[in-house]
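We were asked to recover a plausible sequence for a given structure. The inputs and outputs are reproduced exactly as logged, with field labels preserved.

PROBLEM: sequence recovery
POSITIONS: 112
GIVEN STRUCTURE:
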């Protein structure tokens, strides 16, 4: 009897799904928290006002950890609480405009 070739996964469309997406689908999970704390030790000042930063912000808003820009360090900046919340507020007002502006500013990695 010839051995039948195994075809497990042969018809799967996903190319490489190597990050666990279920638990931390919304992003900002344990791994992000850890990364952010480390980064804030390296970059402790708010890039906007120079005060003590409390959050690592995504320059270009991301949808979650499967967004290619989520872990792109060129898309990270330290912000203090007040600058972060005002940025978040303006993003929810005009996210599309914001993305467009950032792209024009030449932030690497935004492929559309
Ligand atoms: Zn600030």
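RECOVERED SEQUENCE:
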């Amino acid at each position: 009897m010839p051995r039948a070739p195994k075809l497990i996964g042969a018809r799967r469309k996903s190319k490489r799904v190597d990050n666990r997406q279920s638990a931390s689908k919304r992003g900002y999970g344990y791994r992000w928290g850890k990364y952010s704390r480390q980064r804030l030790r390296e970059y402790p000042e708010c890039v906007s006002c120079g005060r003590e930063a409390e959050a690592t912000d995504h320059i270009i808003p991301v949808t979650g950890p499967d967004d290619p820009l989520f872990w792109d360090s060129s898309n990270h900046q330290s912000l203090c609480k007040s600058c972060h919340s005002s940025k978040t507020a303006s993003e929810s007002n005009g996210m599309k405009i914001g993305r467009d502006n950032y792209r024009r500013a030449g932030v690497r990695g935004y492929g559309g």
